[in-house]
Design goal:
alpha/beta, two-stranded antiparallel sheet, Metallo-depent_PP-like, Calcineurin-like_PHP, hydrolase activity, UPF0046_metallophosphoest, Calcineurin-like phosphoesterase domain-containing protein
Length: 178
């Protein structure tokens, strides 16, 4: 660390998550990149030390946020699969939940379940049979044209970044379809 700035090395597989999983899964007893060190979890209600920024990272809530007891923190990162299919009604419900959370900053990244956030996927899907996603078949293109705009209670990252409390956060959605 020089002059208060840390050097962060980008993992060689960061642009190809499938290759990264395969590499680390084969080369290690469990999936863990060599520069990542496991830490013991702390209870959700542990007070934050003065001068620290606490990130709360969640994913895979799949429209089931009712009753979730969220840890104390400053920044919430929801890193994908906050809906089942990315239906506008699901996104609105998630956005309402975000609005009720006490975090100073809320950052959202789409996962593979947010189908409507992937315009290329949806363009192909509307040309095909909807047998895998019957709920999506009821949508018209204008229903999901700008579904990201429904996330008004957080910052949505799609191949973009935001700086929060001095930390630069980059988000890119998962493009693999379930």
């Amino acid at each position: 660390m020089a002059h208060g700035k840390a050097t962060i090395t980008v993992d060689e597989y960061s642009s190809n998550p499938t290759q990264a999983f395969t590499h680390y899964n084969i080369n290690q007893s469990r999936f863990q990149p060599p520069h990542v060190h496991m830490v013991d979890p702390i209870p959700y209600d542990t007070p934050k030390p003065t001068g620290h920024t606490r990130f709360v990272c969640v994913s895979d809530t799949h429209s089931r946020t009712d009753g979730i007891q969220m840890p104390y923190g400053d920044v919430l990162l929801h890193t994908g699969d906050f809906t089942e299919l990315g239906l506008p009604s699901e996104v609105k419900k998630f956005n309402d939940w975000l609005g009720g959370l006490p975090y100073d900053f809320k950052v959202v990244i789409a996962g593979n379940h947010e189908l409507t956030f992937d315009k290329d996927f949806m363009a192909e899907l509307v040309k095909q049979d909807y047998y895998r996603f019957p709920s999506v078949s009821k949508l018209k293109p204008e229903d999901f044209d700008d579904v990201q705009a429904l996330l008004t209670n957080g910052v949505y990252l799609q191949d973009s970044d935001v700086t929060v409390k001095g930390f630069r956060i980059y988000g890119t959605p998962c493009a693999a379809t379930v």
